[in-house]
Design goal:
This protein is an alpha/beta fold. It has a single domain, classed as Rossmann fold, CATH 3.40.50. The protein is built from seven helices and nine strands, in the order ααβαβαββαβββαβαβ. Strands 3-2-4-5-6-7-9 form a seven-stranded mixed β-sheet. Helix 2 crosses helix 4. The longest helix is centred in the N-terminal third of the chain and has 21 residues. It is globular, with a radius of gyration of 16 Å.
Length: 196
């Protein structure tokens, strides 16, 4: 079996398992991200690591650092997954990140907060970063972040902003993009990354 087929099968199996897990949670709704179990979000983050490529000079210095703001449970679940499996040829470190602080040294930043005001603060803090930024805020990607989670029909899904991907200098596998909702910067309200 080819590497491409194996990678696609892995991503699809992972997303199907996550969808089933969310669907089984009676409290899951588009407005309630707390219903999504931390291990499901951690599984998404784990798989993002497999399908995102950073510029070579960004990874030359050492391990990939996943910075998590606001969810020790997701951080713990991701650490457990990383003990059992290695998604890349690089070591992966999971680190906590304080509220809206510069994400220096972070390759993937997960913001576990669905409030738009908080998302805007993070986007200001992340300006100029090469990090794959993802949040629970449903408009995070449209506001200028790389990705966001959302729940639709009882299933956890994700959106990817191709403008933000380009700005961060990232390459995302076409297999992952095929499973994402593709969005662009929301130009209707100007550059929301710097608005207050």
């Amino acid at each position: 079996m080819s590497v491409a087929v194996t990678a696609t099968a892995t991503l699809r199996a992972f997303l199907c398992a996550a969808a089933v897990s969310v669907a089984c949670s009676a409290a899951a709704s588009a407005q309630d991200f707390t219903a999504v179990e931390p291990h499901i979000k951690a599984a998404f983050l784990f798989n993002f690591l497999k399908f995102v490529e950073w510029p070579p000079d960004v990874l030359a210095a050492g391990p990939i650092t996943v910075c998590i703001a606001g969810s020790p449970a997701v951080a713990g679940s991701l650490k457990t997954a990383l003990k059992e499996h290695r998604p890349l040829d690089h070591d992966v470190v999971v680190a906590p990140l304080a509220a809206a602080t510069p994400a220096k040294g972070c390759h993937l930043v997960y913001v576990a907060d669905g409030h738009e005001e908080i998302a805007r603060r993070w986007l200001v803090a992340l300006q100029g970063s090469t990090a794959f930024s993802v949040s629970d805020c449903e408009r995070f990607a449209r506001l200028g972040g790389v990705a966001n989670f959302f729940v639709r029909d009882g299933r956890l899904r994700f959106a990817v902003n191709v403008d933000a991907v380009r700005r961060a200098g990232l390459h995302i596998s076409s297999r992952m993009l095929a499973l994402a909702e593709i969005v662009k910067d929301d130009g209707s309200q100007g550059d929301l990354r710097t608005s207050r």
